[in-house]
Write a structure and sequence with these properties.
With 123 residues, the protein is mainly alpha-helical. It has three helices and no strands.
Length: 123
Amino acid sequence: MANPLEVDPEKLAKSSSAFDAIAGVADRIAAALRGGVDAAGDYAGTGSFADAYNRLVGPGITGLVDSLRGLSNGMAATAGKIKDSADLYNKSDQVNGESVPRLPADHPVSSTPAPKQVKGPRG
């Protein structure tokens, strides 16, 4: 079946792996960041430095970890949708190929070029 959209389902499906890779990296960074902060424990101690640290750094780390996890979830969802699209293109090609008979290559219609457009009186 002709592919007027010129979509290569196999290439499309393979491209989804890049999004999966980004999701994996974001997850690993988030885990390492959270693990590093947790491993540091309460090193700030008490006093004004500790208060400032806990007020500024803790929420910043939490926000960054949440952002990385959101990025990971978004990239994983995108990868899944790309794979779904590739599957749908494959199924569409199969259905269309089965419902429309193919003409043999030596059939006169197969090798006849499309008619040229005829211009009207206004050009």
